[in-house]
């Protein structure tokens, strides 16, 4: 079965969004996106971790090692102030594009 | 986003790469476990859950690389390429060392030659704004650029508006008093603003002040740094002290800086202001100075030339006698200093460039052979996902590495070459080439080395990349099908060899032509016997030898004393020895012939009675001078054949009279003899009409003594000097040299010899490299065709047929290389014909010899592989692979 792929460029935005509520580890982020999208969106590990590195470098998220509820060491990612600002920016842009695409589609 | 923080984080990660990896590994392991748990919770068996999770996750190494690529810098892969390249070289050190050695020789020689060319013609002259400095001189009927007369200079200086300053210099020599007697020292006389015009300030003391060069002024002297160190032990209190020149005290006003050089008077040890007009300077028609002017802002050299020509024309009207036909030349000062060096420098630079090219091509063909054996490696990398760009980058890295190592080793070679070449330049010659002190590895040379290293690397990188871009991965991996690659390599390798042979031909032809030029130059008919002739310059101090009678007595005594030396056959005295220059000229008028004020310029030499017989000059008509031809008799002269033909065509000149242009009775002299042309000018200068006056009728203070001996003339030199000092210790002597050495070290001979030795050397290296290259191609192709040869022999081919097959291939390559090379060589020789003497650019015998030499060398080089091919055992050959 072929699952629908993420729109290009939206992964960063989705990760940032999932982190708005609470810090999460990599697996948690993937799960959260999957759950919130009703299993429509699946984040490949192959793209999740490079994306996280990118966000870290940009300073939009911070990472620290913590202990999970199941008593395991995991790396938790937290949204930074810069990240929150970036998220707002990306959401606005994304909505503009979606609206525009919607308009084009409804025209037909 | 803050770019600084971004870079800081990225850099931080660079130094904690291990931590980054372990974090990532742990993080992903955790992720995988969670997925696994999830699958088990969904009801999967633990073992298959693990496999499924791993499958879903993919290749962990690849994943880690993906993440790492995000945080890594681009250049980190360059490091990988470098490490790999090093490993390649270590695996095959023979190849790497050979390649670096060949490159180092090519680059080293080029850089060394460039260093000389840089100092001689590329670097600006060491003066303030040197491109505004002009050489200002007169020109006449025979001389394109001739000296200025002092009176003309004074008028030019007064009348011109083109130059912010116009100054003059002239050669001179003085007897310097030293504790042990006196020594003649070369010097220069300059006008007061000379150093200001150049923009040179004394290191100690002061410059000459305006007006200090006027007749009757105080006697002052400016020392060069070299003289100050050599003769006065760098004493800082020299300024204000007096030194004795020609018996008169001169006050030292300053010392010039160490870097100061003035090539037109390079041997001058000190400078004195013009001051009193000497005998020559009292006449407007006597030219003994050269001008150097600084252009006013906004004035072009063309405008200055036009103005000076106009001034000269005005003076011509004003002084029709002395100035008829005297024009003006204005050209950049650099033109007369660096201009003469340009042909030889550019020729040598071109030759070294060709050598570098042949070296690079040679290494390129080595790389080509190697790329053949690396086909499999490249194919494997390609199959594993390396893009063509990434593989090309590997070759570029390897080529650059070779280039850089070659360059570093090359600079060492260059340093050695420079030292070697410097030691080959005779000291007497070096004194006239002040630029030699600036030759060295400076930033110009650094940039040049970098450029040629990059160019060579480009060639080295392009060869295997071009070669491999034709490669089919599957083909290469199978490694069985050799025919495609083999044919391609043969073609490309063969093309490279043709290039090498072609360059070798150009260099060999150049070497041949230059050698022949030197031979022709040294065998020019000089009109006298240069063997067993010793010469020395002698200066009679004005104090004691001011009067003509005193001078004549001195010359007679010196001749008598030297004739008594053992082995001496005869002794002659002259004002100028032969093979010097067409200079010290006189304007003559033939009595009884129509005359319109034209300047009939001839060389003038004043000689003792036995001088011409001592040279063994050929007497054609009349007689030589005798001891009786002295001041008590009417003036006599002997003329050379050239003068006789030019001014007495079809007549017997004996008994005819020659005078100066105004027919002054005192200047009237009778022709008593005609001698064969003794070459007074340089070996490659044209023959000039020359008159020989009787030294005893017009004596001088500066003379040269020529002594013919039966024995070793070199051994005689010290006793000559000793005998002259026995006549009078106050006599100055210098420049003792045998005539043969003199001929061999004339400037033209030296330039030709230097060019010849260097180009000969380059040609030999080129020949060796080209032959090795040819051997490589033929040997390689024989190796590739072993199987084919085996098949041929199994089918009945004779060994002789195999021989001829291989030799034919080599023959074609040689023919192509030599054919194209000969064409290029003639073209190159035409470009460099300024350096050729008595030989045409298309000299058939040289071209034929070069073609023969290369053909023979090529056949020898291909004989070995041909023999190997012919001795192939068909059974074994078919069994290989």
Written description of the protein model:
The complex is a heterodimer of chains A (108) and B (881). Chain A contains four helices and three strands; from the N terminus they run αβααββα. Chain A has helices at residues 11-18, 26-36, 45-58, 81-107, and strands at residues 24-25, 61-67, 73-79. Chain A is globular, with a radius of gyration of 15 Å. In chain A, 28% of the residues are buried. The model of chain A has no long low-confidence stretch (mean pLDDT 86). Chain B is α+β, with helices and mostly antiparallel strands and 881 residues long. Chain B folds into four domains: 3-73, no CATH class; 130-337, no CATH class; 341-522 and 748-879, no CATH class; 541-730, no CATH class. Chain B is 54% helix and 16% strand. Chain B has 29 helices and 22 strands. In chain B, strands 1, 2, 3, 4, 5, 6, 7, 8, 9, 10 and 11 form an eleven-stranded mixed beta sheet that branches. Chain B has a six-stranded mixed barrel with strand order 14-15-20-17-19-18. In chain B, a hairpin with a 2-residue loop joins β3 and β4. Mean pLDDT of chain B is 87; it is low at 479-485. The chains are: A alpha+beta (108), B alpha+beta (881). Chains A and B meet through α2, α3 and β3 of A and α1, α2 and α4 of B.
